[in-house]
Amino acid sequence: MNGVAPGRAARLTVRGVVRRFGGIAAVDGVDLVAPPGRITALIGPNGAGKSTLFDCLSGTARPDEGRVLLGGRDITRLPEHVRARLGLARTFQRIAVFPTLTVAENVRVGAERAGGGGSRGSFGYERDGLRTERALALLGLTAVAERPAAGLPTGTLRMLELARALAGAPRVLLLDEPSVGLDAAETVRLAAVLRALAADGLALLLVEHDTELVAELADAVYAMAAGRVVACGPAARVLADPRVGLTWGVAADDG
Ligand code: ADP
Ligand code: MG
Question: Which of 135, 150, 170 is the last residue before a domain boundary?
Answer without folding.
Answer: 170
